[in-house]
Each structure stands twice: as structure tokens, then as C-alpha cells.
Design a protein that fits this description.
Rossmann fold; about 280 residues; 2 domains; alpha/beta
């Protein structure tokens, strides 16, 4: 059904935020080839139903497999929360049981216990990620003694994607949600940025947080987790090409993607191709 030859690592996100994950992965694994797909025309996923997110994510993963990827990273919290498990359990056994799809939530929560002293953790994310309770469920499996409080921040992604993340107008929405979260649980000492867009808001978030609260972004942790995964699964590593290349696909305008991606990656982005899913 899909090409059997070795291929690039596929990285998927509904928008641009996954570029923050890709950037860290590429820093840790610069010799690998990458194919990044952003379903920007149908973003944001955070307000969509479980079934719609699953169908959209399934289409994207299938496209990346068809393009030669043996391994796909869902660099999107909403897709990881609403689609990953179903794709792993329902689709992969039918499509190709040797291919792999990995998410960003599990590697993020694996180190929470070592970071939090109070064992009270806050999660900020899209409405879809927070209402799925995926972080609370995953943390509960590993560390049932940790208390998790989530806060949906529906305006934060638009602020980032419209390049308003550093504007005075963003202050209101950042402060509003952080105040609400810390009022719900004043014992929170660790805040997980449960959306790949949020690292661009990190300086502003940090400015409104008490110094005692640790701010935890996903990119570095997801990257080191992937390095570890491939060291433990050499059979998958052998299926990944290593030419140091990177290509970008988007369901939106290629020029619009290139402009926005340059903002996230702090470097010019070329080689962008428009596709239809």
C-alpha cells in the first residue's frame, strides 16, 4: 500500500506550532531527512470534535506514509490527544504494522514527577486538548499522586499565528488564563505548555508567573525522547534516510506558510509545496 524503501521522518501539525517541535528535533538529529506537513487550511484543530480531528489527522498520516515516511511524529497536542491512539490501534495494523506514529503528550509527561516538588501541575492548551483530559490521564497512569489542573486558552494560538504574541494586546489573555489557573490551584509549581504554539508566548507567560513556578515547554523533551526511541529501535532507525534535507508541505498558500514558518524557525524557509488532503 505504501512505499517500502527508507524515507524521511514525517512531522505533522494542524498549524505552525509543530515547527517548534521540529526545530528541536532537527537540532538533536541534524543528519536525518524530514518532511513537514502543516494542515494550515483546516487549522485550528483545537475546537474540532474528536471524530473530525481523527479523520483529518488520519488523512495527513496516510499522505506522509505515501510520500515515503516510515515514522511520523504528531507534533500537535490536539492530534496526539484525539487521534493518536485510534490511528495506532485501528489503522496501523491494517496499513502497515511496521510503520510508527508517535505523539508529544507521553514524552512530555514522563519527566513531570522529577520536575514538580509540590506534585501540583498545571496544563495550558487548546480547548480540544484540555477537554480530552489526555494530560491528566497520562500523568495519572505514571504518577497517580500528582494533581493536574488544566486551563483552556483558546485565544493564544490566534495571537501567535497573527504575530501578536509579543504585543501589549496579548497581555490581557495571557494574564487572564494564568490567574484563573493559579486561583484554581495555588499549589501549582510546574506549568506545562500543552500546545506547540505556546513557546513563542513563553517570555510573556514567564513574566506573569510567580518565580516559584517552573515553565516547561515540550520541544526539548520530545526531541530527546525521539533520540532515545531510535536508539532502542535500531530496526526503525535503519528505515530513516539521513541526508540532512528538509521539505515542507502545506494545505494553505505556500508563500503564506513560508512567511509564518520563518517566524517560528528564526530562519528563511524555502522548498514549500502546496498539497490537497
Amino acid at each position: 500500500m505504501y512505499p517500502a524503501a527508507p524515507g524521511p521522518i514525517g512531522i505533522f501539525d494542524s498549524g505552525y506550532g509543530g515547527l517548534t517541535i521540529f526545530d528541536k528535533i532537527r537540532q538533536h538529529m541534524p543528519t536525518y531527512d524530514y518532511l513537514y506537513l502543516g494542515d494550515n487550511a483546516r487549522a485550528p484543530y483545537g475546537v474540532r470534535s474528536f471524530e473530525v480531528v481523527y479523520q483529518f489527522t488520519r488523512q495527513a498520516v496516510s499522505y506522509l506514509f505515501q510520500a515515503g515516511c516510515q515514522l511520523v511524529i504528531l507534533a500537535c497536542n490536539t492530534a496526539s490527544a484525539k487521534a493518536l491512539r485510534t490511528i495506532q490501534q485501528r489503522d496501523l495494523p491494517v496499513w502497515d504494522p511496521d510503520r510508527r506514529v508517535l505523539g508529544v503528550i507521553r514524552p512530555t509527561v514522563e519527566c513531570v514527577d522529577s520536575i514538580s516538588r509540590s506534585k501540583h501541575v498545571g496544563i495550558v492548551g487548546t480547548t480540544g486538548t484540555i477537554t480530552s483530559h489526555s494530560y491528566a490521564i497520562e500523568i495519572g497512569k505514571l504518577f497517580p499522586h500528582i494533581h493536574v489542573t488544566g486551563e483552556a486558552c483558546p485565544m493564544w494560538v490566534p495571537l501567535v499565528e497573527n504575530n501578536e504574541f509579543d504585543s501589549p494586546g496579548a497581555d490581557y489573555f495571557v494574564r487572564k488564563h494564568l490567574d484563573h489557573l493559579l486561583q484554581a490551584d495555588p499549589l501549582i509549581d510546574t506549568l506545562i505548555l500543552g500546545c506547540t504554539h505556546y513557546p513563542l508566548l513563553a517570555p510573556k507567560i514567564r513574566s506573569f508567573l510567580p518565580e516559584s513556578v517552573t515553565l516547561f515547554a515540550q520541544g526539548e523533551r520530545v526531541a530527546t525522547s525521539l533520540v532515545d526511541y531510535l536508539s532502542r529501535h535500531p530496526e526503525m532507525d535503519q528505515k530513516l534516510t539521513k541526508g540532512g534535507s528538509c521539505h515542507f508541505l502545506t494545505t494553505e498558500s505556500a508563500s503564506k506558510f513560508a512567511d509564518a514558518a520563518s517566524l517560528f524557525l528564526h530562519a528563511p524557509v524555502n522548498e514549500v509545496v502546496h498539497i490537497e488532503l
